[in-house]
Amino acid sequence: MHSVLRWAVAAVAALAIGSLCAEPYAHLAAPWYAVAARVLARGHAWTVTDVDVGPGKSGSGTVVRLKGEVRKYAWDSVPAGTVISRVQVGEAVETPVVFWTLLLVWPGRSWRQRLGLVAAGIPVFLLLESLLTPWQLLQPLGRASAIIAGCESCVSQGDLWSHFLEAGGRFVVEAFFALVVIALTGRLRARTAAVPEPQAARP
């Protein structure tokens, strides 16, 4: 019962934090999204010009916006058009809420062990923040470039990945990577505990 109560409190707290901090977090994460999107766009027929946070199309709600130029081919010097893609800030804040909630409230961990989880989770979290929201922002640019190239029916691996994320796969990926960090740190701790301490040499 104690474990169930802990998860219930954690879920309520995570929802509250996600609702209150979605827009500030999006502003904080926008520069990282811009860097990650530019790296992911290398070698493709589109370029990223700006990533910012602003109102949605209808004026209600807040979104992360990516502005980019699309070309028919990657080597074209003149862009064929400009595309603006959007992701709701609620989707952007989902990654830290899900990932860090799982790490911090996972049962059977001392505070020292939780600090180890946090240290191990930081690079994994940055990887997630490079592959989830930035790629969802880039997907409309890829579609526009394919249409310009005369391949409206083409489905790329990027399209499949983006559709998977939008269909609920984002939560699955976030939870999976959090569980991987928990499992690996637990195994490392078990191996460390199993190593016998060196015995002092007898005089």
Flag low-confidence runs.
none
Beta percentage is 5-15%
Total DSSP E strands = 3
Amino- and carboxy-terminal Cα gap: 55 Å
Coarse morphology: elongated
Order of strands, widest sheet? 1-2-3
| Biggest sheet character | 3 strands, antiparallel
SSE series:
HEEEHHHH
Report the C-alpha radius of gyration, rounded.
Answer: 21 Å
Number of helices: 5
Helix content: 55-70%
Indicate how many domains the architecture comprises: 1
Judged by helices, strands and strand pairing, the structural class is: alpha+beta
Average pLDDT rating? 80
Q: Could you explain how this protein is built, in words?
A:
This protein is of the alpha+beta class and 203 residues long. It has one domain (2-193). It is built from five helices and three strands, in the order αβββαααα. It has helices at residues 2-41, 89-105, 111-131, 133-148, 157-194; strands spanning 46-55, 62-70, 81-88. A three-stranded antiparallel beta sheet has the order 1-2-3. A hairpin with a 6-residue loop joins β1 and β2 (62-70). The N and C termini lie far apart (55 Å).
